Amino acid sequence: MNDHELHLVRLGIDTHQEPIVYMRADCHVCRSEGFTAHSRVRVETNGSALVATLNVVQGDLLKPGEAGLSETAWGRLEARSGQIARISHAPPVESLSALRSKIYGNALTDPQIEGILRDVVAGRYTDIEIAALLTGFSAAGLNLDETVGLTRGMVTVGGRLRWDQGIVADKHCVGGLPGNRTTPIIVAIVASLGICIPKTSSRAITSPAGTADAVETLTCVDLDLPSMRRVVEREGGCLVWGGAVGLSPVDDLLIRIERALDIDSEAQLVASVLSKKIAAGSSHVVIDIPVGPTAKVRSRENAVQLAGLLDQVGTRLGLKVRTIITDGTQPVGRGIGPALEARDVLSVVQGDVDAPNDLRARSLALAAEVLELAGHCPAGHGERAAEAALSDGRAWKKFQAICDAQGGLREPPQAQHRWIIDAPEAGRIAAIDNRRLSRAAKLAGAPSAKAAGISMRIRLGDFVETGEPLFELCAESAGELAYSRNYLAAHPDIVRIGANE
Amino acid sequence: MNDHELHLVRLGIDTHQEPIVYMRADCHVCRSEGFTAHSRVRVETNGSALVATLNVVQGDLLKPGEAGLSETAWGRLEARSGQIARISHAPPVESLSALRSKIYGNALTDPQIEGILRDVVAGRYTDIEIAALLTGFSAAGLNLDETVGLTRGMVTVGGRLRWDQGIVADKHCVGGLPGNRTTPIIVAIVASLGICIPKTSSRAITSPAGTADAVETLTCVDLDLPSMRRVVEREGGCLVWGGAVGLSPVDDLLIRIERALDIDSEAQLVASVLSKKIAAGSSHVVIDIPVGPTAKVRSRENAVQLAGLLDQVGTRLGLKVRTIITDGTQPVGRGIGPALEARDVLSVVQGDVDAPNDLRARSLALAAEVLELAGHCPAGHGERAAEAALSDGRAWKKFQAICDAQGGLREPPQAQHRWIIDAPEAGRIAAIDNRRLSRAAKLAGAPSAKAAGISMRIRLGDFVETGEPLFELCAESAGELAYSRNYLAAHPDIVRIGANE
């Protein structure tokens, strides 16, 4: 065996997504190369290679001549037990100089941005380097050219779909509003009217549920590209997870750290949204921007600025973008969390009499904008068309057909652990803190625990008596329920009740 | 055994400094608490607790009922094999909201800064959160009040020395200039003249050697506080590693990530430098700011700005600060790397005839400033006093006495692997790229490989013939030598030779 070769061992350690290689401290490769814990090394097997971070092992976890791999590294290398790997210094990552230059206040050129994105996609950035990238972009800000470059770069380093239809519709919500799960309803309405809407959605970044998380409780969302294409060709629409079709490989890598840090910059947001639309082959995109003191966008000024940026960047890249600024002062519908939101969606598309009115109204308004932007009906006539498709069951039929094509419609799970939060006093509901409500839903387990989250019982302006339920906490484990209850106990003002009138 | 208890196992995995806990995927605690890979958990044993990141283990690395700890976690908990640990959700880290607010462009208050620093010191920040903190501070910038707050906060969360002497001198170099190892020489001169200079130095952040790294090749630098005090009481000066005396616990945690990211902000730099001086009990501080196109400070404007900030923050915190802007266009002395720089220091304090003149001159000039600032001699008379102490052997005697008190003077190690880089053409040395030279020294193994680095054979303005040596690469392993040579081959213009005159 050569100087730099070791036999691979699967240690079965799940380090989340960061590839780790484990080597003995007394290993000949460590010694001859001067490797220490946290060195970046290149691991090469027959035909594939990756860059990993080194963890040095003392004791007998590994035998002499062995190197262990974390689960991510094992999977990416498609390694086999005992296979020989060659281990060497990772080449310096040149694009990090561009990143540092950005952090120190200089604008990035398109080639610099593309270089950064290529290195991220190739797995050359460590988690802390991705954290620096996201934070640097947020804190230093990107100008218009950089934002266009970032959007274009994200498309360039990933795949791109092409459709036969001239008009391909899409919609997006910038998020931050718990329960705002209009997408599945809009897709059902729009597709039922014959407009192509091949919807790819993301999972939650910092929220208790993304559209993909919610739809996953109803049907299969991790379709590959050929399957997605089959569904769209048959039904004119789909509801799949963008990560599975691999259209935004950079975004998938960044989102994990964004989620951990809970940060999200304007340029990053614009690039992430628009690059996905372009990669999905969309031509006409409606974007919902909810505004409220505790929504992601807090003021009308910020919303107007974000709308302008989406519009400018979209136009530069040949996309027709229409932004709609909506009310974001309180959660939409009743559920917050994947399965709870899926139930709201079902009740609206099925036309239940007790379906949440606000979710229905928002979905119709946004569907109307899609219909008008896509030229299906003249300005002012979209809402009537959308309303008709929902009321006469065409949307529900289309929804079922799409779910059938994706693997069948299923019942969302129910939480086993529940706790009702009561009004501590009588009065009118004066304010609802979306952020802390989302936090409580996340502490209860959402989005990874599908049934977890919050079920709202009140809306702004409602009058409640002392002891009346405000909302119900749902969890899949007792520990998470307790964890979330502790948080709620520390923040008793998430739902603010005004003076008794 | 209780629901949330597991038996601890030492897995012997060195993850650098991040505490990791390893738990089986089917473990009852993981399941009841909803833990997944990368969850942040609190691990509590009898009397101590820490927050760690979870790695989930499949297979039989751990038996049911066991939890593994990384070496850092094991050490911090002072764990014993088989000991019972209680594992629960880590409490939310409230100061992260303040950090996010900073990233989004808001100024921080003193209590917010102190909250962040307390959480960092308590180990509540993950590596990616520390990366976000450093990047956010660099990219968003801190104003004067925030910089004062950061400096004060760093002192508050750490220890603070008090000395009987009214005047306690100190000096610091903002770095970025390879080989600029004046500190040990200045300490020897100043202490030999009876001025108290209890010097604590740092290890390299992004450079091939810090003062502590270089001095460590001559004597012991990781003295605890009582030992340091004993040395200072006996000799009036010392040369210890600040990390060992624990005066800057925050800085020690931040530096590891700063080094990995290779970023360094102005406010962070000022706070780091001045907080250490205040914590060390210094009253009069001289700060060397080398300026050059490839030094850390690139222009005179930047140097003046940094000097102003050091002065303002120092004054607000009751410190007498004198900043000196010096030439930073080329390395100082001959060696770059711990042992190579230590040899230069030795030759100057010993008064060798072939000691590097530039290092000697810089040391005398800075020592003179210290002597004048501390009131040992009137303005304009410092240099003569310093020169006398160096020439008549008092400085060398003091240097040996300090090293003796710290555990004895020893010989710096020599590198086994060497390679000479020759001039590819004849001509005059027109420019030297400090940054890339440092990079090459680091790739050769410095600072962790003590003997590694670069030995310079030329200075700016020298005339060289084709094939004459420019510098020598030194490494402790063949792999590192090769790695650095590859880098040099890719960057042949590190030493730029002008047209033959």
Draw up the topology in text.
The structure is a homodimer of 501-residue chains.
Chain A: E1 5-10, E2 13-14, E3 20-24, H1 28-33, E4 40-44, E5 49-57, E6 66-69, H2 71-77, E7 84-89, H3 95-103, H4 110-121, H5 127-140, H6 144-156, E8 169-173, H7 183-192, E9 197-201, H8 211-215, H9 225-235, E10 237-241, H10 242-245, H11 249-261, H12 266-279, E11 284-291, H13 300-316, E12 320-327, E13 335-336, H14 338-349, H15 357-373, H16 382-391, H17 394-405, E14 417-422, E15 427-432, H18 434-443, E16 453-456, E17 463-464, E18 469-475, H19 478-490, E19 495-497
Parallel strand pairs in A: 1-6, 3-5, 8-11, 9-10, 11-12
Antiparallel strand pairs in A: 1-7, 3-6, 4-5, 4-7, 13-16, 14-18, 15-17, 15-19, 16-18
Helix pairs in contact in A: 3-4, 3-5, 4-6, 4-11, 5-11, 6-12, 6-13, 7-15, 7-17, 9-17, 12-13, 15-16, 18-19
Structure description:
Two copies of one chain form a homodimer. The first copy, chain A, has 501 residues and is an alpha/beta fold. The first copy, chain A, folds into four domains: 5-89, Barwin-like endoglucanases (Beta Barrel), CATH 2.40.40; 95-156, Transferase, Pyrimidine Nucleoside Phosphorylase, Chain C (Transferase, Pyrimidine Nucleoside Phosphorylase, Chain A, domain 3, Up-down Bundle); 169-247 and 267-405, 3-Layer(aba) Sandwich (Pyrimidine Nucleoside Phosphorylase, Chain A, domain 2), CATH 3.40.1030; 417-497, Aldehyde Oxidoreductase, domain 3 (Alpha-Beta Complex), CATH 3.90.1170.30. The first copy, chain A, contains 19 helices and 19 strands. Chain A has helices at residues 28-33, 71-77, 95-103, 110-121, 127-140, 144-156, 183-192, 211-215, 225-235, 242-245, 249-261, 266-279, 300-316, 338-349, 357-373, 382-391, 394-405, 434-443, 478-490; strands at residues 5-10, 13-14, 20-24, 40-44, 49-57, 66-69, 84-89, 169-173, 197-201, 237-241, 284-291, 320-327, 335-336, 417-422, 427-432, 453-456, 463-464, 469-475, 495-497. In chain A, a hairpin with a 4-residue loop joins β4 and β5. In chain A, α4 packs across α11. Chain A is globular, with a radius of gyration of 25 Å. At the A-B interface, β2, α1, β5, α3 and α5 of A face β2, α1, β5, α3 and α5 of B.
